[in-house]
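Form 12-C: Joint structure prediction
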Amino acid sequence: MSFMRVMRSPRARHEALEGYLWISPWFLGLIIFTAGPILASLYLSFTQYKIGDIPQWIGLENYREALYRDKLFWPSLGRTGYFAVFNVILGVTGSLILAMILDKIVRARSLYRAIYYLPSLTPAVATAILWGWLLHPQVGLVNDILRRIGIKGPGWLSSTDWAIPSIILISLWGSIGGGRMIIFLAGLQGVPTEFYEAAEIDGANTTQKFWHITLPMISPTVLFNLILGIIGSFNVFTIAYVATEGGPNYATWFYMLHLYYNAFSWFQMGYACALAWFLFIIVVTLTLIQLALSKRWVYYEFAEIGR
Amino acid sequence: MSTQLAKPVRSIPIPVKRNKTGAQLLLYAVATVGAVAFGLPFFWTVASSLKSQSEIYTFPPVWLPATPRWQNYALVFELAPFGRFIFNTVIVTALSMVGQVLSAAAVAFGFTRFRFPGRDALFFIVLSTMMIPWQVTIVPTFLLFRYLGWINSYKPLIVPNYFGGGAFFIFLLRQFFMTIPRDFDEAARIDGAGSFRIFWNLIIPLSQPAIATVMIFSFLGNWNQFMEPLIFLNDPSKFTVAIGLRYFNASPFTGDQPREAVLMAASIITASPCLALFFMAQQYFVKGIVMTGIKG
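Section 2 - Result
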């Protein structure tokens, strides 16, 4: 329908006006709480701005500060990348495996699904607190179990080497059985059984069926979850903030903690905005790379699925 | 045996079936190991919450307390204004839910029931805002609320929810509204109903499952949010439970009050509404997640 034709009749004009009215709360919100702050953030990233002062234009100084002088910038980015890679790969694989198990299970499926799902409902702050206790080096459950099978457990959150793996473990417990698993399960149940039957007649084994039928059929879902997983991983904050406050010795000082402390403890608002824009650029770049790579491996049954 | 007669006929399926039984057993074994791994932390948390100070720090650890110390749960409310925290969270969550449900429904109604230029482009913008890490906007948003004098009030946690309620909810409700035939609207219009009556008396009642799903995820999102109250609230009497949990690290404990046990008890109290909600409304969770890809 062309723009002119819509606008010609008074009835259509009235309808359009009403439509704009109904979506206006969202549009105002977009301007006030998304677009406005993004632009303000871009402007402030070129200024030196402590709360209470007037922003001073300093050009690219904040970005230079981050790249060349801030001793915590690169390590925090590196740690976040380390966390993101393992969190996304293990998380997406784990969710897929659980979904495949649930898909095959006949009896008590909803019970298993409920048990897997419950950790993801637990508030992140509670998850961080209870895992801080589970991973206690001496009296925690995890090291007690390890000791029973003859392994001396590490110091977990209090060890600089094990702190990030601990955060990954906590994050995985809270996310593997969550919405992502449910989405994969729905995807698996959407694969037509005739495909498998046809493959069985051709003599395909379980592994071949997985690589040549299951994975291609659910690849759009996998892509969607990889993208969301990356974005989510770069925003890792609550678990680390609650469990370790960035320690020990900065071992879990992730990017978002660096941004948070700069903005809300040290009130370096301009610099924090520059950090936010770095994060934004990184996340957008990774998303675009994934979308470009996906053309090689994502299979769309219908073009619309990919919208 | 009399059944032997049937044997030759089933000679081909039998080996396949036996193989499948073995695979099924293995499958259940793996599934159960997984369930134990996911469930054990809950067990440990509940057991720890009922331990005494000496049991908490026994080495090697005892799995169950000799006598459950239920008074640890009472201590949660004595050592911190935890009742106040719950009350605050209920207020913030309830008001935010109302905003998210009503405004997301209104916006979704606008996108499905009216034709207007730029509709598809605007809806594409709705979807793409899901990809923006909201932390990018946190500093200017903080400055905006500070300028408005809203810091240390609940307004920063509540008011933004009245502006569309978030892209996920708009998307979910739009998908559902599109399944309601337009004929219903036409019939109502012929009977003289205006847009608001169609929205309120027709679309909303017909969309109860989708509305319920939005309410559930809205509840979880608001109950669990951490960074926003951390940034916007600084007076402890205004804390929500999520940031109130950290209060126990600073509050004074006497010798026989087991700090970790009380902290575990407080964590259980914080998580229990979310877990209870799941058991009450399990089917909405699954449907809602599948419809939109919301991460629960």
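Section 3 - Comments
The longest strand of chain A covers residues 47-48. Chain A has two domains: 1-39, 62-306.
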